[in-house]
TrEMBL record:
Residues covered by the N-acetyltransferase domain: 53-205
Keyword Cell membrane (UniProt): yes
Molecular function in Gene Ontology: acyltransferase activity, transferring groups other than amino-acyl groups; structural constituent of cuticle
CDD domains documented for this protein: NAT_SF (cd04301)
Principal subcellular localisation of the protein: membrane
Native species: Cylicocyclus nassatus
Membrane topology field: Single-pass type I membrane protein
Name of the protein in its database record: ZP domain-containing protein
Amino acid sequence: MVHRKMESFKTVLQRQKPDVPGKPYVMEVFSNKLPKSAGDPWRGAYSKHGFWYKFHDGEKQDFDKLVALSFEQNGYMLNYDYITAWENAYGISNIRVLVARNLKKELMGGLVAINKGDYTQIGAYFVMEEYRHSGIGSMLFREALKGKVGVIQAVHHLLPTVSNFGMKECYARRFNHIKIDKASGFPDLQESLADCRVVLAESFKTSDWDAVSLFDREVSAETRPIRELLALEDSETAALFDDKGICLGFGTSREIAGEGVRRIIVGPLYARDQQTGEILMKAILKKYYNPDLDFDFDPDPFAIYRRIVEYLIPAEERVLPVIEKLAGKDGKLSRPRMWYQMILRLLAQLLLLPIVVHSIPVDNGVDGKPEVECGPTAIQVNANTQNPFMGHVYVKPRFVTKVDRAYRISCFYMEAAKDVSSPMNVSELTTANVERFTQMPICRYDILEGGPNGMPVQYATIGQQVYHQWICKSETIDTFCMLVHSCTVDDGKGDEVPILDSNGCALDRYVLNNIEYPDDLEAGQEAHVYKYADRDGLFYQCQITIHLKENEECPRPVCTDLSKQFAAVAPSRSNAPHQSQTVQFITAKDSYKRNLAKVSRLIRVQRSTSGNADKYTLDVRAELTALDIVQEKPFTSIRDVCISEQWILFTIVLFALIFLTMSISFTTLCCATSRSRSSQTSIMS
């Protein structure tokens, strides 16, 4: 076996064509000499024209991504709530989302397959325009219908490929996708019918839903949970009933996101005749026609006479005239290049059908090929019968007998097209720069005594309650929001412990609980003082992200409830901060003024060379010195000791004075005695 060297991953990535808004889709064909099945980890992957892709079972978010991509290309009528309606109708376990991803793990296309018991229906699919020529759609269908009886609701360009899946067209209903720009014929539509009532879905009774389901079964040839399927957001459903409660038709209009103004889609719309179609159309579009409340200075963006409305309706003579009448004289009709068609039944399933019993003879049938006449407004088909025939010819939507014949008839009309152009030069407008600068908020981080109204502290002993406060001041009101996150505490020597994660959620409620936000630019939380075992200093550092306030509300992080948590942050660290039961603060106004620069520092803009830092993310810091608890003697004992020492000193001084006084007195007495003796001696002499 000869092993071929595969291309490098970088080379394959360069070949993937990105979706560049505003530019045409690239449809270049690449030569690819690699085998269809690549090696690990892409064994079983597919490639065509140089585009590699692999299938994965998707989830709700993958379907939402397909819807968003379809909005960008504005080519398909998907919406986010469709999959919810399908899950409610058929059960979550019966809904499968299948997606194709390239080597970049980007979505290239996908579909939704609905398991309906005896068969599987592909109800929605989307492939990005620049990848459609790579055959992703066909491979998606083949993957979803492996070993299953299938039903495909698809656009007409897929009809030639259904035979590749072992399928044939057994029963089809065509749908036109029509757009009307600025319809003007709404007032001319018929509004009511004698002995009939038109009812909106919110007023349906159970009997009304039963009648609608019966009518839908006659139209679609299958039993569908129509009530759940029509329960779409921002939709309006109406039905027409006769005096016996029989449904004569129903229709739905809905709003779909995707542009500056939400798109309005009408469909389905099933009616027995043109009158019924007009009544239903007027009922479901009535809320978009309010000329009395519409003014040029305050226009109604949803008014159907101001905008484009899209219609997905059966291509039948009883419905198409309704569209033409609604367009009126001023409305402009257009049809996109894609129109929809329903293809039912696998060929394998047809082979399982019972053979028609030949004991019931049919004595007539079509003889030879029919003749087709293509007219300007109609197509006429002439056929010969084996025996004389007196009756009517019908298109049979349900049963097929042995004498029935199916024909595909096409008429081609030559049309001339000529481009007429007239040059005109238009000068560019002079642009003027209008700038406005808004001062970013100034933020600070304080550690306060007791609560949010306390004084900033620098020294505290272990265990006492303090309040961590983050406040930002802004010149503008109701403009900014703040988020405190990525907080750490360290001992100044590099021993760092995280206390808030990047989402702003606490990691250990015994160190610091989840942050509370009493205001848009204010956050705080109570905590108890702790310290490292061998160091007194605590250095806190947090990040504050400032962003603009949207929808008059500031988003807050949704964090896990830590009320049942027992473990502390980093319990295995021997020098991690520890806690106690009592605390004593050493605070004073003079100390506060003298140490304010240490307690709270102004923010600085975080600068990072990695390119991942948010330019509106700020660093704030605070410091705290935690003191150990000293086992002190009672105050009375200290006072007694001090008093005893004072008495000893006083006694010593007193005795010294007495001794000094006695010494002086004794000296004086001795001197007096000496003088007396001298006098006596002199007298005797």
